[in-house]
Amino acid sequence: MALALSGCGHSLSSIPGFEAAAWRADPYACRNQRAALLPPLLAARAQLYEARADDVNALLGPPDEEELQAQTEKVYCYYLVAGPQCGPRHPRSGAPRLLLHFGPLGTVTEVQADPILPATAPQ
């Protein structure tokens, strides 16, 4: 059984042009850097599919929020611009987010990014 599960998903190597350390250094997007870092990540979206949660954590850092859904599915949420989530206790915010959906096998099945409107884009 362990052999069958060990092959699920793939490791996530570095993504060309994506500054992972800068992304990880901007939790909740409170330094307002993530929106500028997003394009190379979205350009390499195909590399994210089937990546394991541990590998996503290594690349992007822990999610700002994690939503548990039906069965064993979950969603990692990473804020893209500063907003109310930067306040004390990090309240949930309607600010644009990157959403990574994980299926029952614990691998990425969907990648979504909320649009960043000019009023919310970093200055």
What is the helix fraction of residues, given as a range? 25-40%
Terminal CA distance reads 52 Å
Give me the secondary-structure category: alpha+beta
- Which regions contain 5 or more consecutive residues with pLDDT less than 50? 1-6
Structural write-up:
With 123 residues, this protein is α+β, with helices and mostly antiparallel strands. The chain has a single domain (18-113), classed as Beta-lactamase Inhibitory Protein, Chain:B, domain 1, CATH 3.30.1450. 26% of the residues lie in helices and 18% in strands. The chain is built from five helices and four strands, in the order αααααββββ. The protein has helices at residues 2-6, 20-24, 34-43, 45-48, 53-60, and strands at residues 65-68, 74-79, 97-102, 108-113. A four-stranded antiparallel sheet has the order 1-2-3-4, with no helix packed on it. A hairpin with a 5-residue loop joins strand 1 (65-68) and strand 2. It starts with a helix and ends in a 10-residue tail after the last strand. 24% of the residues are buried.
Keywords:
123 residues, 5 helices, Beta-lactamase Inhibitory Protein, Chain:B, domain 1, 4-stranded antiparallel β-sheet, alpha+beta, disordered N terminus
Summary of the model, kept short:
The chain is α+β, with helices and mostly antiparallel strands. It has helices spanning 2-6, 20-24, 34-43, 45-48, 53-60; strands at 65-68, 74-79, 97-102, 108-113. The longest helix has 10 residues, at 34-43.
